[in-house]
Amino acid sequence: IVNVVADMWGSMPGMGHSGAARAGMVSFTETAAVEWARAGVRVNAVAPGYIASSGMDNYPPQAAELLRAMPRTVPLGRMGTEAEISAAIAFLLSPAAAFISGTTLRVDGARPQARMGWPMEQPDEAVRQRVAVRPFQGFHRAQTPRVFASAPAPREDA
Question: Are the CB atoms for 54 and 145 separated by under 8 Å?
């Protein structure tokens, strides 16, 4: 079993109810892993961070600037892809993860570790060109959300 929970490690002012529910799912994942292990059932969770999905195109137009600014708060300097979440889920369901149970795999570009007041530099262009930082695009039908397709380049002083 792989539960999907959203990032709740960085706090969510104004959304305490949602953070509490997400933390509850992490606790349920850990508890179920212990209770169901004797039946051979592994239970894990995947916690996506900021993922550029088509759902972002449903936000009102006034949210576009905020959405386009989000990657600057991610140490890897970008948003994740739907394919990266799917790959994490497929891994946890595969025989390669046979000894993994009761864990939550965060797929978030180290976003929860970014702290206010601590300088965070974005990866430079040479780093962006390396495979480790390039997004995994495993879906042939994946499309960049419209809000990012027309985005102006991020300002260096922002």
Answer: yes
Under DSSP, is residue 105 helix (H, G, I), strand (E, B) or coil?
Answer: strand
Over residues 2-45, the pLDDT tens digits come to 999 987 777 767 878 888 888 999 999 999 999 999 999 999 99
Q: What angle do CA 15, 24, 32 make, to 5 degrees?
A: 160
**CB contact at 8 A, 37 and 98:** no
Nearest-CA neighbor of 3 among 49, 66, 46, 63? 46
Range of the domain at 26: 2-149
Alpha-carbon distance of 136 to 88, in angstroms, equals 11
Assigned domain for 154 exists: no
CB-CB contact of 89 with 130 (8 Å): no
Contacts of 104 (CB under 8 A, 6+ apart): 5, 26, 29, 44, 45, 46, 47
Q: Domain tally for the chain?
A: 1
Return the closest-CA partner of residue 47 out of 112, 104, 103.
104
CA distance linking residue 135 with residue 96, whole number of Å:
22
How far is residue 70's CA from residue 102's CA, in Å, rounded to a whole number? Answer: 30
